[in-house]
């Protein structure tokens, strides 16, 4: 401070000296609270701002008092200056310095006293070295000052000028060691500090100049008699200028930042809004590529990479030859996930092997930014130095940190969407797989709701029902098949039904509970009520049942053959004897004798018994006669002629239709004549009571010879129509029938490669149709 008189230079130097002395304690405490990293709970930005406001509050009060004394002679806050009040104000400043500086030194000592391992795990050895240099500088600068200057001042002892000079000179060590620690260990915030200092100084000067000009205008424009008006106007002007200081400093800082970064300024500004754009990106690959490119270009970083969490490891987004594709989650320690940024160090002891962090350092990465959302780890962003090989300053770190915080949420959203899409694709794949099984199954499958209506059916089920799939969906199961749902989980139930074409079928069905259990809202169009959807599986086992029946028939025929042999041996001999004796008695008995009719009945019954035995033997032997080409019409005509007397006695008219050309088949005439004789005889017996009309039609079509024998009798009931070809089934058992005629006829026709079927529309009699393959030359 120069010596009075208090001219303009004195005022300027004194004001700067006083302002520095008042702000020094708060600035020092602020520095050690945030350097080299925010202390404790101040690490959160909101708490940092609120805490630092209280740090600067005493200095702000003292500055306001000094300004009031210096500019307004104590008119607003201090009051009329006196010697005692000025001494008290000076002592307050000394007390402020004495309280804050020891607190700063205590925080510095606490940081230095932390264990070396804790430093290595949290902030690194470089920051510890920085603090040691600063501690040396403060000890070398402030201790002589306190011992030689402050202590004599507080005790009221004289201070020779030489002693004062010796006390003040070591203070130069403080800024020197601070600057050396910052520059030597690459905390490159000098540019930011200088820019902020310039903007703050210019803002303050503009505020002082503006207030001085306004105050000068008020002093000259307002009469001294209006003192209250002057004070009110000055106070209002001060408030207005103070309100303009913040936007003014922001504008100045932006202009200086634009001048500082020049061509990269626009890209840095674009990074602020990039986070919102990244939130709209859904593709994870494009999002990460855009993020890395924008960070490289916006902050001019030489290399950037990103590792994302996948399971229990970190996987690189941009693979590099010098980096592993995956890293463990604790590659930089668990403490990293609680920090904003970690400086990667490459220092290691000579005997130690390289750690993962040192591998990252060798690859050119100097910073690690953890990415997390609400405690969920998303990944780690790695960054190197700038393109000019300068480290990132605090402004660069803050800009990247802010962008990565927004990008972490965007990455998590993209990952969730990607997993959702993967799950959707898996669901679609499983749906197609299930539909493929559902559709390719040879069994009929129907999904049935609790109301018994079909929700879905496959093609096999639609074929069983004889309807289209669209027609079946939404209908009751009973409308598709004449079956009822068996108990859930029960054994397969076998039922017989007739399809839409009238063919006899036997279907095996069983019911299983599906894995899908719908307990939510009702599905549209499939009934009301909540419950499980059940799956009905229906197998068409018509062929299996037919094979089983054929096997049973063969077994029965085998047993019948053994029975027929025994019957022929045991019965034919006594029947022959009875027949011979009856014929001998008839020859000796007159026809007028009453015993004659009795003997005739005995004879007829013996012939009937012999015929039954012979038919049984023929059916059991399954003997095939000699086959040759023959015209079918003469064989049919001969069968009608043999039964002509019977037909005439019963009043049956015969309508025999035959084609002009011969219908030739390959067969045994005796066997075929037996078939047609049996059919004509059955038709005559059906019309025995009332007579009727016998229609016999011989024709050929589609390589087949067809003979239809129809009558106008009462017909065959539907329940018997299915059994007429079974052995020993007959409607004439009480009238001498054996139940083997149609069975033997059916067997003969099948041996000839043909088919015998019957139909009987209600009230229209019965019709039997014999189909035999034509002779190959004739068919051609």
Q: What structural class do the secondary elements suggest? A: alpha+beta
**Which residue ranges are poorly predicted, with pLDDT under 50 across at least 5 consecutive positions?**
115-123, 502-530
Work out the helix count: 23
**How much of the sequence is in beta strands?**
5-15%
How many distinct beta strands? 18
Task: Output the radius of gyration.
Answer: 58 Å
- What kind of assembly state do the chains in view correspond to? single chain
Helix content: 55-70%
Shape: rod-shaped
* Mean of all residue-level pLDDT scores: 77
Please give the largest β-sheet.
Answer: 6 strands, antiparallel
Strand line-up across the major sheet: 3-2-1-6-5-4
Distance between the termini: 137 Å
Overview of the structural elements:
It is a single chain. By secondary structure, the protein is an alpha+beta fold. Helix content is 56%, strand content 14%.
Which helices and strands occur, and which strands form pairs?
Blueprint: H1 8-34, H2 45-72, H3 83-112, H4 116-122, H5 125-155, H6 161-168, H7 173-184, H8 190-221, H9 227-261, H10 265-280, H11 284-299, E1 304-310, E2 313-316, E3 326-328, E4 342-343, H12 356-362, E5 367-373, E6 376-383, H13 394-440, E7 444-448, E8 454-457, H14 459-465, H15 469-472, E9 493-498, E10 504-513, E11 534-540, H16 542-588, H17 594-621, E12 628-631, H18 632-642, H19 644-649, E13 652-657, E14 664-667, H20 669-686, E15 692-701, E16 704-710, H21 718-721, H22 741-751, E17 755-759, E18 767-773, H23 776-779
Parallel strand pairs: 13-15
Antiparallel strand pairs: 1-2, 1-6, 2-3, 4-5, 5-6, 7-8, 7-11, 9-10, 10-11, 12-14, 15-16, 16-18, 17-18
Helix pairs in contact: 1-2, 1-3, 2-3, 3-5, 5-6, 5-7, 8-9, 10-11, 10-13, 11-13, 16-17, 18-20, 20-22
